[in-house]
Specification:
CATH architecture of the largest domain in chain B: 3-Layer(aba) Sandwich
Number of helices of chain A: 3
Order of helices and strands of chain B: HHEEEHEHEHEHEHEHEHEEHHH
CATH class of chain A: Mainly Beta
CATH superfamily of chain A: Quinoprotein alcohol dehydrogenase-like superfamily
Distance between the termini of chain A: 56 Å
Oligomer: heterodimer
Low-confidence stretches of chain B: 1-19, 280-289
Largest interface: A-B, 73 and 66 residues
Distance between the termini of chain B: 30 Å
Structural class of chain B: alpha/beta
Largest sheet of chain B: 9 strands, mixed
Number of strands of chain A: 44
Mean pLDDT of chain A: 92
Number of domains of chain B: 2
Number of domains of chain A: 1
CATH topology of chain A: Methanol Dehydrogenase, Chain A
Strand content of chain B: 15-25%
CATH superfamily of the largest domain in chain B: Periplasmic binding protein-like II
Strand order of the largest sheet of chain A: 12-13-15-16-17-18
Number of helices of chain B: 12
CATH architecture of chain A: 8 Propeller
Chain lengths: 584, 289
């Protein structure tokens, strides 16, 4: 009797155990799930909706005809008074939706009902001075983990079911000015991240960690002269020491990888962009200042740089070069296909590169006014600068020459990711039309001491709009259509096989456009500015669309005419989910 | 990324409620404490050693509180990208990550032109004139060096400072290849003592304090610096601007007494830093602009 009971209990235990294991196995996000993310429709397991970053969904239930029936399914409030800028892209897996929020928070909810499952509030240390706002752009899913980065430069892996911390790794010392707000990506079991930092003395890098444990595998600095590592051993110097910097400035050269990156399986390359060089005054650092304001193609297994392309050599405008590089097939007239990548830079040019070797194929303006260069020389791949329009060097105690520069340093396009639709062969770029007056201040102060800084004012270029969602043909660089917006666009873009393009506006709308014509087909007022990234998936036969709402980010921090256009906008913090109901 | 933070000067969007009212003298007295922001890791002015807050500014803050008949509550704060940020974080608004503001911050510029740009605070009680100077190793550059010596001998600066930007372009860029960047002047001073560099350019008070004990071959003095935008500047206090409350006047008066009775001079001398009052300051040559 006793024995039988024990036996039964054992069986029960086994059964329960198996059931749990099966659930766990089904729930675990695999490398295959991530590799196939762009083509599977029942989940969204990576930032970019596929590691190439196309933000294209093959779903077409929701389309130009049916989008008028799109209705709210639920809204999840992030609560708290921490309402600055919700820039994340949600992820969906196994019936759960995961999203990060400002101030290094993360939430999980039932993807269908919106019932909250858990929330995680990262405890930020006292005295932290993050350089670059308190937004967060999203997480990565792998195995049973939800991995995201924090303002104090940590990488945190949470259990998808409970929100409990599984592992936590310090990426850099926040006291030295490092931070992190970008979404990590997972490539073949490695979680790949960049790093942010606004203080002087930082050097950008790309790093790979074992996604299950957080253990560092390789590290690749982004400024020439710095040693990379692989498995704890030296792994070659980045570039050639001090080739394009004066003195020892390369040791503190900047080039922060603050927006993360994409991955292309066809060429097995990571694509990470880098920020501007330091110091801010370009006259103090003659040379190209490699690899600042550049794109790096990196071998994901070793962290070696395969090739680079520098968007803005000798950057003197704070253009950065961090904007995403999106892999796509460039279809030629003769029917052949070039493995290419598209990139809309802060500097106002839309670039198409051969992604096998970094060679420039085409570069065309995607904004109406560019003052710093006449164009990009297709032979040399370098900008044709207009020297008079480079901000001047401080001279003595006098105010330096004031230069009007377009685009402004906020860029023809900033961080907000564009989308590519392989059906229309068009890129959808959230662009902004603005310039800036920039001059060197005679005297400012830093840490109580006299200092030479720069002053600037951002100015809209048009009365009726700053933002413009633009459809760009990568074959010609032509703008096929545009949809103007009064306030600057600051949210990501989604496109679908249903001939739709979604993006948000600071005025609070999530909008849907006809992907071929740009006709506005649908809009919904979310109650606060939409600066997050929309995403879509299918569950139980219904198509869903999710987007965070919550005005903030860099734009409201600016004075002048731009602030005038956005000062009436209310903050918020919530996740909106819509669905196309089954037709009965 | 540098430029983004400059812009936050004009930030006015925050909703987060922080205790950012200007405290009145009465508030301070009834509370019994004067809260003070000082830069952290900033010898010889304000730093923590052996678990204790130390330095010239720490002593000054205590003496000021004493004059008002209250205790001092000193908060050591990190320096943001510029003083406008520091004032916003610590004096008139509070940082967006929380923590609130303090009644007063020391080591703030006393400069008419600058104060016009930052009208959210009152700059009061100038107590010191800081000057750019050089510390150098006489064994390497002799007892009377000029800037030209550093075209062939390495010289250190704290990164992202006036001295850094000056030396990068001085002598038609002829010094830049010999310029060594350090995270702070304490580290530069170690390199100077170790013979790795021949000189340092930086604020004199910091150099004197950090090199308070130095071998005879290391000297500190001013050199001719053609084209330097600003060679000296006055330091004072900053409090949140307010039409009433009287804290500004009380602190102004307290500092005047401390200068008059020799306390300020004594504090500087105890830290082996030459005391130079900002009598003629700020910098006559530039103040006419």
């Amino acid at each position: 009797m006793k024995a039988e009971r024990s036996f039964r209990q054992l069986l029960l235990a086994l059964a329960v155990g198996c059931a749990l294991n099966t659930t766990a196995l089904m729930a675990a996000v695999t490398d295959d799930d991530i590799a196939n993310d762009a083509t599977t429709t029942n989940d969204v397991v990576s930032y970019g909706m596929g590691l190439q970053g196309q933000r294209f969904s093959p779903l077409d239930k929701l389309n130009a005809d049916t989008v008028k029936n799109l209705v709210p399914a639920f809204v999840l409030s992030y609560g708290d008074e921490k309402q600055r800028g919700q820039e994340a892209q949600p992820l969906v897996h196994n019936g759960k939706i995961f999203v990060t929020a400002s101030y290094s928070r993360a939430f999980a909810a039932d993807a269908k009902t919106g019932e909250e499952l858990w929330q995680y509030n990262h405890r930020l240390p006292d005295g932290i001075l993050p350089c670059c706002d308190v937004v967060n752009r999203g997480g990565a899913l792998y195995d049973n983990l939800f991995i995201f980065s924090t303002l104090d430069a940590q990488l945190v892996a949470l259990d998808q079911d409970t929100g409990k911390v599984v592992w936590k790794e310090k990426m850099e010392d926040f006291k030295a000015g490092y931070s992190n707000t970008a979404a990590p990506i997972v490539v073949k079991g490695l979680v790949i991240t960049g790093v942010s930092g606004g203080e002087f003395g930082i050097v950008g890098k790309v790093e790979a960690r074992d996604a299950k444990t957080g253990k560092l595998v390789w590290s690749r600095p982004t400024v020439e002269g710095h040693m990379g590592t692989l498995d704890g051993k030296d792994n070659g110097i980045t570039g050639e020491t001090n080739k394009s910097w004066p003195g020892d400035l390369w040791k503190t050269g900047g080039a922060a990888t603050w927006l993360g990156g994409t991955y292309d399986p066809d060429t097995d390359s990571l694509f990470f962009g880098t920020g501007n060089p330091a110091p801010w005054n370009s006259h103090l650092r003659p040379g190209d200042n490699l690899y600042s304001s550049s794109l790096l193609a990196i071998d994901p297994a070793t962290g070696k740089i395969k090739w680079h392309y520098q968007w803005t050599p000798h950057d003197g405008w704070d253009f950065d070069g961090v904007n995403e590089f999106v892999s796509f097939d460039l279809k030629q007239e003769d029917g052949t296909v070039i493995k290419a990548g598209g990139h809309a830079d802060r500097n106002g040019f839309f670039y198409v590169l051969d992604r096998t070797n970094g060679k420039l194929i085409n570069a065309t303006p995607f904004v109406n006014q560019i003052t710093w260069a006449k164009g990009i020389d297709l032979k040399t791949g370098r900008p044709e600068y207009i020297d008079d329009n480079r901000p001047g060097a401080p001279e003595g105690a006098e105010k330096g020459k004031s230069v009007f520069s377009a685009p402004s340093f906020l860029g023809g396009k900033n961080w907000m990711p564009m989308a590519y639709n392989p059906n229309t062969d068009l890129f959808y770029v959230p662009a902004n039309e603005w310039g800036m007056d920039i001059w060197n201040e005679p005297i400012t102060y830093k840490k109580g001491a006299a200092y030479l800084g720069a002053g600037f004012t951002i100015k809209p270029l048009n009365e009726d709009y700053i933002g413009a969602l633009r459809a760009i043909d990568p074959k010609t660089g032509k703008i096929v259509w545009e949809a103007k917006n009064n306030a600057p666009l600051w949210g990501g873009v989604l496109t679908t096989a249903g001939n739709l393009v979604f993006t948000g506006t600071p005025e609070g709308y999530l909008k849907a456009y006809d992907a071929k014509t740009g006709e506005e087909l649908w809009k919904f007022q979310t109650g606060s500015g939409v600066v997050g990234c929309p995403t879509t998936w299918e569950q139980d036969g219904e198509q869903f669309v999710a987007v965070p709402s919550g005005w903030g980010g860099a734009v409201p921090l600016w004075g002048g005419d731009v602030a005038e256009r956005v000062k009436h906008l209310n903050q918020g913090g919530s996740l909106w989910v819509f669905k196309l109901p089954k037709t009965s | 990324m540098w430029i983004k933070t400059l812009a936050t000067l004009t930030a006015s969007i925050l909703i987060v409620a922080l205790p950012a009212h200007a405290a009145s003298l009465e508030d301070v007295k009834s509370r019994g404490t004067l809260s003070v922001s000082l830069y952290k890791d900033f010898p010889p002015y304000s730093y923590v050693q052996d678990g204790k807050q130390q330095g010239i500014d720490v002593e000054l803050a205590k003496a000021l509180a004493d004059k008002l008949g209250v205790e001092s509550d000193i908060r050591m704060v990190g320096a943001d990208e510029n003083v406008e940020d520091d004032l916003r974080n610590n004096v008139w608004k509070g940082h967006y990550l929380g923590g609130g503001v303090t009644d007063v911050m020391l080591h703030m510029p006393y400069d008419r032109e600058f104060s016009q740009r930052v009208d959210q605070v009152s700059f009061i009680a100038p107590y010191q004139l800081e000057k750019v100077a050089f510390a150098f190793d006489t064994a390497k550059v002799g007892a009377q060096p000029t800037l030209a010596n550093f075209m062939s001998a390495p010289i250190g600066v704290e990164i992202d400072t006036l001295s850094d930007f000056y030396l990068l372009q001085a002598m038609q860029g002829g010094i830049s290849k010999n310029l060594r960047h350090f995270e702070n002047l304490t580290k530069a001073a170690e390199a100077l003592k170790a013979g790795e560099i021949a000189g340092i350019m930086g604020p004199r008070g910091e150099l004197e304090g950090i090199l308070a004990t130095r071998p005879a071959n290391i000297q500190i003095q001013s050199l001719v610096t053609p084209g330097l935008a600003r060679g000296s500047w006055a330091m004072g206090l900053a409090v949140k601007a307010s039409d009433e409350g009287g804290l500004d006047k009380a602190l102004d008066g307290a500092m005047a007494e401390l200068v008059r009775d020799g306390t300020v001079k004594k504090i500087f001398e105890q830290h082996k830093v030459t005391y130079q009052p900002p009598a003629e300051a700020p910098d006559v040559a530039n103040s006419s602009k």
